[in-house]
């Protein structure tokens, strides 16, 4: 007995060490980290070089559930409230309705491909319906992909919050299958289970998070024990909620979300501890699931598995994402990227164990197929995320800032941080600018030596400086120590001139001689940018205004405009890739309005043609009447077309009179609108602001 126990300890520890060192492959060749850990488990399994015979599905599910609960708690704890505000609505729609849509589409194809009962097919759709939080977080945060804040936040919040929905659907469908099919009221039963599990999970998670914060703040514990107590409380919330019939996974995520955004003592130590335990949980879960798999059984399901994976990647996920984000005004390219970052991972494999544990007839078939789907997804999507972001043109210039930020636990409400900068060669202080008293470093590292500020002399490029400062000063410190953003001096990227954000566009127009719209006479350049960019602002964003372009040079932490550039001579920029799909609601509405205008014009032409066949006297009157009526119709069409094109409104306003408008508006509008339909949100930067 003791020898067996020691052997298990030896094998487990060796597998962890191997998994950690093989993770270097992921950093070097860009392979998804989850895939590396899975291959470690497969290599150690009964069909691999390790030859370990592990077929204990209940134990694997137990280990995976605990690991997933720890990962979800840490995901909630690390999700900032600002990120949640930016992406709460689209993320929650994706995490609920998106999961259900994916389940339905994949379930329908599974029924055809695997030839299983329709309820079992839906079960498989639920198993592979959620994205993997660990894989998404790793690729976005460590992979060096710089995205818009809204897109990045939507992906992170969705991947952390869609697991409870997939777990709910999987367990509910397994119970219905074991009960004999659920009868005719399956939808009602699922709705009742949804209200019970999701409702209890959200409420008990909120109560549990509040209890954790109050306990840590009121009871003085040994600092080393606080992270252990917090993790134990999180797992107790998970277990208690599951026992009473709620979603334990949702409860532990909500508890982490509340605790991580509250003023809690020792939160810095808790975060550091959770980083370690989360990595350990990921390694343990992935390697265990790899051990449980039997690659020799994959031969009979490899073709159906690959087919289902391709349907999931190219049909189910894009369709679900497009329908869910239709009303949130995402661009086509952002929607396409979100649909591509739908990696399946350990959660899908973990849920595939449930049918085997519960004795579902097709349990082993579903597990093997899910494993093939996960591996295909990781190989296809995980390895191409950066390439896809570059192909879609949605990557933004990196923002230079502090190398590291360390929270300080100080008495009372003294909110301070240790900020670490590596001084840029072209920064203000490296070129000789005086450092304000409040920004002077507390420690300087130079050539591997620690120096006091008074003995270090003038700060040099490459120095590493440590500064204790309030978080509100970080933006000011960036301007002193960090270098300019990549390409900040590039005229093609950031324009010829720069202005403060409160500069009025009318003053710039008088200075550079371009026409200002009457309604913008009192507007600042920042207000125009924020209006036309819908609040989702990143450095390098452009808005065409007349014969110039306004460009965002710098932003603050709240994505407010700090500096504005202007391009006087618009240079032909590389056209942004335009996809023929993923239209937003605004684009679909513009297309529908354009079709309605075309139908209206056709009816008027037919009516005028019929009237021309009347006798000469009546035709004279009708021609005179249609001329005056044409003026009214022309004005109406101009106003309608202006909703889709600001340029048409500008041209209509410059016409000499109503008579000219009556004669030329119909043909002019038809030519301009048909030639340049206003259905491309992404093409703002390519418009000159004047219709020719």
Layout of helices and strands:
Blueprint: H1 2-29, H2 33-44, H3 57-78, H4 81-113, H5 118-127, H6 133-141, H7 149-161, H8 163-178, H9 186-218, H10 226-243, H11 248-260, H12 267-292, H13 302-325, H14 332-340, H15 346-358, H16 363-382, H17 385-392, E1 404-407, E2 417-422, E3 443-446, E4 449-451, H18 453-456, E5 464-469, H19 474-481, H20 491-494, E6 497-499, H21 505-512, H22 525-532, E7 542-545, E8 548-555, E9 561-567, H23 585-611, H24 616-644, H25 646-653, H26 658-675
Antiparallel strand pairs: 1-2, 2-5, 3-4, 3-5, 6-9, 7-8, 8-9
Helix pairs in contact: 1-2, 1-12, 2-12, 3-10, 3-11, 3-12, 3-15, 4-5, 4-7, 4-8, 4-13, 5-8, 6-7, 8-9, 8-15, 9-10, 9-11, 10-11, 10-12, 13-14, 13-16, 14-17, 15-16, 23-24, 24-25, 24-26
Give an account of the 3D structure.
With 692 residues, the protein is of the alpha+beta class. The protein is 61% helix and 7% strand. The chain contains 26 helices and 9 strands. It has helices at 2-29, 33-44, 57-78, 81-113, 118-127, 133-141, 149-161, 163-178, 186-218, 226-243, 248-260, 267-292, 302-325, 332-340, 346-358, 363-382, 385-392, 453-456, 474-481, 491-494, 505-512, 525-532, 585-611, 616-644, 646-653, 658-675; strands at residues 404-407, 417-422, 443-446, 449-451, 464-469, 497-499, 542-545, 548-555, 561-567. The chain has a 5-stranded antiparallel beta sheet with strand order 1-2-5-3-4. It has a 4-stranded antiparallel beta sheet with strand order 6-9-8-7. Helix 23 (585-611) packs antiparallel against helix 24 (616-644) and helix 24 crosses helix 26.
